[in-house]
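Students often ask why we bother encoding 3D structure as a string. The short answer is that it lets us treat folding as translation between two languages. Here is a chain of 455 residues written in the first language.
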Amino acid sequence: MSLIVQNLYAELVDRCASAAFAADFPLNGSFVRVTIKRRNYWYFQAGRRGESGTQHRKYVGPDNAEIRRQIAEHGRAKDDYRERRRLIALLHRSGFQSPPDEVGGVLQALSAAGVFRLRACLVGTSAYQVYGPMLGVRLPIASLQTQDVDIAQFSAVSLAIAKDERIPSLIQILKTADPTFRAVPRFQDPSTTVAYVNQRGLRVEILAESRGPERQAPTELPSIGTHAQPLRFLDFLIRDERRAAVLHDVGVLVNVPAPERYALHKLIITQRRPTGAAKIDKDFSQAAALLRVLTDRRASQLREAWREATGRGPKWRQLLASGLGAISVKIRDRTLQIVGETRAFVPGVDLRFTDDPIRYDEDSISVILLGEDGDELIRCLIRRDALLDEYGADGKTKKGYIDAFQRHRSEIERLVRHAYLSEPIKEIGVVRIDALDVPRLRGALGAAAGRVRRR
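And here it is in the second language, the structure alphabet:
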């Protein structure tokens, strides 16, 4: 079912893109490739010359396989509303929801005006809503609700777009969706606007990346006719955006962050929000829901995004680590396993042993000790060969193995704890110690103790 949903959604995105492309670029023109600073870009050249004798050029996008495919199909694309409606109906039948009509109408107006063609990116919960059909899973309903629309754009991209391609005023576009939209004046500088709100409280916020020192002054985004609030870490989120379709009307073509970037970004910003902020729980819920899916279905993409984020410096690693520490142990550990980190990466993680009686298990040929990590029960298995070879167990009876464990319990617990926290994660919820592990773990503990003494 998951694959069917993903294929349906991919077809919807393609059809929305073809319809938008045909609407943007009429048949009485041609496409030209232009090299700017050693990179190739496509422009659409209108058929008629203006009074000055020049032909108007309209920005299409960077030279890539997808743009070239759309150009090749230009003129053959049809406005297939009926088929797009059918695809959306099938996705609805599969349990995927549309955004509220009010939100969908705003996104439709922005898309039709070319905001997303100019590399703006839908972020926040409105973007999160498209990841369900994109990944072929039903995401938790509570994490899908929103009354905000957040739009982001790189300031350098906005400045680079030619003046005749720019949208004069974002508020004019919003008013086509709802005439009650108004600019929200900033207290520090009422002449600049980074947010808009309508009569019913739907808020549209505009964001841009912020590098270097923290700053609050708005950034101008001339290509979409507004200012934006600069935010740290946003450049990671909107880099390499993905094309998507919002399930409104016959589909609304937008850009959204890659889901793996969205999940990691949520882990980061939860640490930056004021204590008690209402959005923190939703941020964690969205991050955990996506990581649960991504670790199984997009492990390589998640690993690549993780390496980029952690490669940006100690602060990034610290924020990601703290974020992982606030989600469920199983999802945390699966994420750490995929990205190649140990549990020691996350501050505050520990393994505490319970008072439950130990027992010998015939199926795993191990003595089982139970531990706890937060609310999660961890099965710690000390294999029979370790008890025989390293702890002198009498292997004639189960009691012989249990007695050997009890005699050496203090050391075994130290070895188990070290393996759980500092060794690569092999299994979720389980630690296994066999005869070959014991000397290595003893050596690691000894080396760690030596480092502490030298300090």
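Translate back mentally: The chain has a mean pLDDT of 89. Keep this in mind for the problem set.
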